[in-house]
Amino acid sequence: MKTYLAIFRIRFIHGVQYRIVVFSRLFTGFLWGMMMVLAYLAFYRANPTNFPMELSQLVSYMWMQQVLLILFSVVFTDNEIESSVENGSIAYELVRPADLYGRWFSRACASRVAFTVFSLPMLIVVLLLPEPYGMSLPPDIFQFMMFLPSVILALGVTVSFTMLMYVTMFYTISFGGVYVMVIAATAFFTGAVVPFPFLPPPVRTVLEVLPFAAMQNMPLRIYSGNIAGTDALRGIVFQIFWLVLLIAAGKLLMHRALKKVIVQGG
Amino acid sequence: MKLYLKYFSIHLKSQMQYKTSFLFLTLGNFCMQFSTFLGVYFMFNIFNEVDGFTYSQVLLCFAVVIMAFSFAEMLGRGFDQLPRMLANGEFDRALVRPRSVIFQVVASRVHFVRLGATLQAAVVFFWAIPNSGVVWAWDKILTLCFMVICGSLIFYTLFLMQASFAFITTEGLDFMNILTYGGRDHGRYPFSIYGKEVLRFLTYIIPLALFQYYPLLYLLGKEQSVFYMLTPFLGLLFLIPGYVFFRFGLSRYKSTGS
Fold first, then answer.
1. Nearest-CA neighbor of B161 among B223, B80, B218?
2. Which chain A residues are closer than 8 Å to B34 by Cβ?
3. What is the pTM of this model?
4. Predicted ipTM?
């Protein structure tokens, strides 16, 4: 555990280096979120009765999504991991006396957390925005207490899915294609394009049992109060279920891949 | 021009070397755009109209923006190479060659995989054109062409400006993405739905609305004046500050050595 924490720390400091890039991303994120909110407001004006969430819930959902964007991004490139497979330095990684899965997992978590920490100032701004544009606080303290573990679990599920993608690299070596396909699929399945309540019931029923529903969907809806009370608890159990399953699958597959891995020379 | 076509065919050939990879990336590009389309589709599953625009009318707007963007991206993504060229000193070589700098940068990369998005736009057009309720007289057809062509040029200029920032910062910054990718993603709805301030900004500062919103009004018969049909050309004025900004960046260029 100590090793993983150390890796986490190194990676975190590394991510924090690029402050200007981070600030520019912050600015972009704010404008992007604003445009999203404005678009939904236009739909709300067109027909308030058909709006499937409460307006304030939706607005909070959108802002929180922007703030935690990187934390929940399935594909957040880590050049070192990718090039280690491409140029063969994976061999060094393999002789180190710590489990590769655990190390990559903590790296992937750390770089996401590092970038997200710098998005947090946005929270202050969006909380101060006037009605109906601004984000509201969770309806009660219980929702907030549920939100925190849910965020961590969502990060875990996201990263453990990313790990599965990394395992495929052992077989394909090139990732461009895999990445693009994964981005395309997850954008919709995680609720990043349209929040789940806006989807028609049949589509929703299917999506809500997939692991992608255990990613950003859960914490964002718990925060906004769209999933409340016992449903929130059930949601967290659902997240734990997928986290355990995905990590087990990832470890197993990686173990099998490493048995056969052919290191690129050089 | 002839030289550009030559480059064009070389890029095409080189990217065709890896057919599976090319197919996958094109398909991926299509799918990525498709999720945006699904977003629009599911929203209109619940709502009949937004700001007075119906589903098929919004799709028309969506397809124009996607198509314009995909052309611009396919031909203009060479600009992405500029930060790298600046960092590794390759740009110095470009400066001494007897061809325009912009040409050399642009010709360094052509992204044919963006055809995935073009294809998507074509499919949406195929559906939206007969269903939008527009009587397709010659003036409407011309308007649609103006929208796509001028739209590509405006996006193209935005890519040029984004690259020009690299002269000042050496590192590419992503706040311009709100105008390029943001213009594409938020441009799926007519810009008027975002409110007066946004529309005004996108009319007078960054003229994305000039090829999207105003000619759309003419297309749908909401405005009769020919002026609305020709607004995309007004948007082309944006090419001037774009080019000036590039020259300004170039004048500040200091070699990084190699």
1. B80
2. 184
3. 0.86
4. 0.87
